[in-house]
Structures are given as C-alpha cells and as structure tokens.
TrEMBL record:
A Pfam family annotated for this UniProt entry: Rod-binding
Region (Disordered): 114-150
Native species: Nitrococcus mobilis Nb-231
One Gene Ontology cellular component: periplasmic space
Keywords: Bacterial flagellum biogenesis, Cell wall biogenesis/degradation, Glycosidase, Hydrolase, Periplasm
Single GO MF annotation: hydrolase activity, acting on glycosyl bonds
Family: In the N-terminal section; belongs to the FlgJ family. In the C-terminal section; belongs to the glycosyl hydrolase 73 family.
Locations listed in the record: Periplasm
Segment forming the signal sequence: none
Function noted in UniProt: Flagellum-specific muramidase which hydrolyzes the peptidoglycan layer to assemble the rod structure in the periplasmic space.
Coiled coil: none
Name the record gives this protein: Peptidoglycan hydrolase FlgJ
C-alpha cells in the first residue's frame, strides 16, 4: 500500500500525519524538509497557545472537560493554519538549517552554479594525526562504499590513481589528492546513491556538459543573484576511484578555460590558483585551502614515501 505524499496539515484530527512524515524523511527532499519545519513551527505555536490558555483565568461556565477538549483541538487547528500560511518565521529558519545539514559538504560551491554542495569547503582543513609509513599503496575498492576509515587510508587508497592522472595532466599528484580531500572531507562526504553506494565523485563535478553516465541527485542550496534557492542537482557518479580521476582529467582537458591551469609547468600552487581563476570554485580562498591540505600532517609526511614506493614499482 503506497503512503500518500505529505502536502499539508489540513486537519488537526488527521492522525496519519506522523506516519506520512516518517515516510518522507527516509529520503529527505527539500519538500519533506519544508514539511518538517512547518510541523515544528505548528507545535511551537501550540505550546504558546497552551501557555496563554493556562495563564488566562476562566469561569466555571467555560471550564468543563468538553470545552477544554474543544479549545485544545481549536488551538491545534489554529497553529496548523498559521504554520501552513506565512507563519512566524521559525519554519523558514529551521528549513535552512535542515537543508544545510542534509546536503553534502561543498560549501564554497554553494555560491557557484558549477559546483554547489553545502558545508565543507568553508571549514578549515582538518589536521589529523601524521600518516604512518604505508606498507603498500593499495588501489581503491571499485564497488560498494569506499572503505576509507581514516584520512590516512583515503590518501593511500587514491594515490595510485592520482599519480597516473597527474602524469597525464602534467601536475603534481599531491595537488590532486589534496583537492579531493578538501572536496570530500578526506573521503568522508563523498556523494552516495539512495542505496548507500558511493558515487566516487571525488571532485564534486555536476552532471552537465553532455554527461551521459550514471548520476546521483541531491538537495542543494544554490545562490542566484545573492538569493538562496532550494534545488535538486545531479552529480556525476562513477564505478571506481580510477574512473573518477580519469573523468576529472577529461573534464579539465575539454574545458578551454582550464588551459592555463594545465600549462602550469608542474607547479602545484600555480595549477590551483589557475583553477580558481578559471571558475572551478567561487571561494576566493580555494587554492590556499588546498595548499594547506597539502601541507597538513596527514599528507605532507606520507607523500614523499608514497612517491618513492610508486617510483619503485615502475622500475
């Protein structure tokens, strides 16, 4: 039996509202989050009305059980009608918070029409414990959710693909690893399909520009002319880390605006600054944030040894 989609709080006596709400929140959408916010505002207004009733003196003529029950139902309906209308402003504020919490974390790109996820870019890069000397550089798993239990395992896992792609593009591999770390929070916030599978989209590239592959759709906040709007955006999805890096390389090479970045002569900072100027991200500190990730305790100590190991496997 299909559960009807929530559309409003038409009647205070409708006992199915919580059931509908729980159903909608299994896979949150901007509409269901708006519903939650309005429901919370409705409950808040009910609480205010109840407090007002309790503080108002009443006579014996209007203090019977039936009258109290009627007032309670009337207050519920009134609160529901207020929340469904213009409200008192609480629902709008709560809705923004819920959208922010339920969207993946690419906050600098929230203001961009090219890359728009909320949360992570505007945070300072994490600085976990120094990376241990890896025994071997292992390729990433190509199915199910990527097994990145720590920043260190994330770096070790994607390093081989990053090095191959860096060689193709003529840029330092640590710059690509650092960029992926910033975009995904060391692999913790990689976009996922509804069934939990990883999209392996390490660079948060949207599914436009003629993309015909798999996609993952999420709720995002976009800023258009300085005004926040709720949108549902499609992002590219891959079957492995290797596919993600290969597509990232194609994405840069087929966009003329990134020609300067690819002509950086192997200098990481020049490459990142050129990416920023070309509009990869609207965050004015984007290149500097990636540079800080490159110099972080997680990436700096281990990258030299990873390079040595990778060079050793070639000989």
């Amino acid at each position: 039996m299909a559960v009807q989609k929530i559309t409003s709080y038409d009647n205070a006596l409708d006992g199915r509202r919580l059931e509908k709400l729980r159903y909608e929140l299994r896979n949150p959408t901007p509409e269901s989050l708006r519903t939650v916010a309005k429901q919370f505002e409705s409950l808040f207004v009910q609480s205010l009305l109840k407090s007002m009733r309790a503080a108002t003196p009443g006579g014996s003529l209007f203090s019977g059980h039936g009258v109290k029950q009627y007032r309670s139902l009337l207050d519920q309906q009134l609160a529901s009608s207020i929340a469904q209308g213009r409200g008192i402003g609480l629902a709008a504020m709560l809705e923004r918070q819920l959208l922010s919490q339920n969207a993946p974390s690419k906050a600098a790109a929230v203001e961009s029409t090219k890359h728009s996820l909320t949360g992570y870019r505007n945070r300072p890069p994490a600085a976990p414990a120094p990376v241990e000397s890896p025994a071997a550089a292992k390729p990433a798993t190509t199915s199910q959710a990527a097994p990145w239990g720590s920043p260190e395992s994330f770096v070790r896992s994607i390093w081989p693909a990053a090095q191959r792609t860096a060689h193709t593009l003529g840029v330092p591999p640590e710059a690509l690893v650092a960029q992926a770390a910033l975009e995904t929070g060391w692999g913790e916030h990689v976009l996922r399909h509804a069934d939990g599978r990883s999209s392996f989209n390490l660079f948060n590239i949207k599914a436009h520009g003629g993309w015909t592959g798999d996609t993952v759709r999420i709720a995002t906040l976009e800023y258009r002319d300085g005004v926040a709007r709720r949108e549902s955006a499609a992002f590219r999805a891959y079957g492995s880390v290797a596919e993600a890096f290969a597509d990232y390389a194609d994405f840069l090479r087929h966009q003329p605006r990134y020609a300067e970045a690819l002509d950086s002569g192997g200098d990481a900072l020049t490459f990142l600054q050129s990416l920023q100027r070309a509009g990869y991200a609207t965050d004015p500190a984007y290149a500097d944030k990636i540079r800080r990730v490159m110099d972080s305790p997680t990436l700096r100590p281990g990258r030299a040894e990873l390079k040595k190991m990778a060079d050793g496997t070639k000989t």
